[in-house]
């Protein structure tokens, strides 16, 4: 099921990967909750799993990419009537693999202002004001590992 935070919220992680001032987002499949909404990829933290380890596992499982977690960015809390999550976002760098979409319908590289124009999940939307405060996104060097459109 996933790790429940002490607050009763489900712990979820998100990878922030960027190249040339653009950030990677993926579109959820139509058959999942929030179908066809865009997100910063990641997933549920398993019981006993560290946040960073969860993120590495989820990105490998869903996108066929190996990543290094470079630093914590922000935690936001999001609630709807039937669930609550605590989303932990980290800056990540692609270290290997070849992009595949096992759990997503599509992907895009977007500039900061474009984040408001795409249909992001509610939790991911909460990260945008914090991302806007940055002068630039840290580089992830995804162009080296077969991620189309990274450059």
Structure description:
The chain is mainly beta and 151 residues long. It contains three helices and eight strands. The strands form two sheets. Strands 5-1-7-6 form a four-stranded mixed β-sheet. Strands 2, 3, 4 and 8 form a four-stranded antiparallel β-sheet that branches. The longest helix is centred in the middle third of the chain and has 13 residues, at 51-63. It is globular and about 35 Å long. The termini are far apart. The model has no long low-confidence stretch (mean pLDDT 87).
Beginning-to-end CA distance, first to last residue: 37 Å
Q: What characterizes the major β-sheet?
A: 4 strands, mixed
Strand order of the largest sheet: 5-1-7-6
* Mean pLDDT reading: 87
Order of helices and strands: EEEEEHEEEHH
Cα Rg: 14 Å
Assign the structural class, choosing from mainly alpha, mainly beta, alpha/beta, alpha+beta, or little secondary structure: mainly beta
Portion of residues within helices: 10-25%
Number of continuous helical runs: 3
What is the count of β-strands? 8
Q: Roughly what fraction of the amino acids lie in strands?
A: 35-45%
Write down the overall geometry.
globular
- Outline the low-pLDDT stretches: none
